[in-house]
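Hi all, posting the design record for the shared folder.

TITLE: backbone redesign
STEP: 1 of 1
STRUCTURE INPUT:
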């Protein structure tokens, strides 16, 4: 697959636009991203032992989204506060806990930091831990 075909993938294309990233993902990053997008929500897996389709969330540092390697998979509820079917947001919160979009603080208090979920994701995918220098230098992490 060449760079143009990779760039045609909706998620990666969106990332390139949003992050203004000129660099296409490496083969290893693309392989991880493909498997990640099929791995289901990391929170639902850990908290409820269930598979729920998910979407990719990029970790941030200093208010900027990090690269393709710093990504986890969250369901629509845990990522963007989108309830399942006709279930109300209050009921979703009661059953599944807080969503990242509603309150990062409550989300991380319930499920661990994004970095913790990244480690759990990498364990699940069987890939080595990512270098943490960028994440560890996040000024917000010291709060
Ligand atoms: Zn979930």
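Okay, here is what came back for every position:
SEQUENCE:
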């Amino acid at each position: 697959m060449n760079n143009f075909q990779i760039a045609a993938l909706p998620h990666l294309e969106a990332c390139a636009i949003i992050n203004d990233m000129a660099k296409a993902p490496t083969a290893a990053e693309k392989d991880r991203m493909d498997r990640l997008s099929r791995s289901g929500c990391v929170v639902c897996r850990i908290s409820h032992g269930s598979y729920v389709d998910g979407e990719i969330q990029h970790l941030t540092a200093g208010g900027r989204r990090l690269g393709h390697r710093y990504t986890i998979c969250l369901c629509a509820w845990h990522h963007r506060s989108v309830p399942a079917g006709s279930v109300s947001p209050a009921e979703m919160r009661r059953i599944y806990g807080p969503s990242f979009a509603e309150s990062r603080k409550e989300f991380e208090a319930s499920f661990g930091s994004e970095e913790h979920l990244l480690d759990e994701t990498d364990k699940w995918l069987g890939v080595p831990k990512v270098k943490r220098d960028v994440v560890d230098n996040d000024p917000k992490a010291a709060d």
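COMMENT: The radius of gyration is 15 Å.
Let me know if anyone wants the other runs.
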